Fold this sequence. Notes:
The chain is mostly helical. It has helices at 2-48, 56-100.
Amino acid sequence: MAGDLHDDIAQIEARIEALAEKIGRCRKISFAAKLAIAAGAAWIALTLLGAIPFAAGPVVAALAAAIGGTVLLGSNKTTWAQTQDALRASESLRAEMIGQMELRVVGEDRRTLH
Length: 114
């Protein structure tokens, strides 16, 4: 029975690691989305201020970057929140399973426990 519990905990720890990696990817995607929004907005603002000559292609690309970045940021936010919820649940389950184990302190003299 204890071996099964150890195996279950190992599987949960692998899931926790995978979820942590997914959250790391979400952070990178969030940064990229914010960068796309900022770059698109800056290009449009500079074009409107006359600092950059108007050209249809770059303005359309800037609009696409700003809109696409906004959509990506919203979608990623949902994924990130769901992944964090799953991570918390997995960590809670792991803690509960560890609490079910009969652990002892290393070096503890068993004769003094009776």
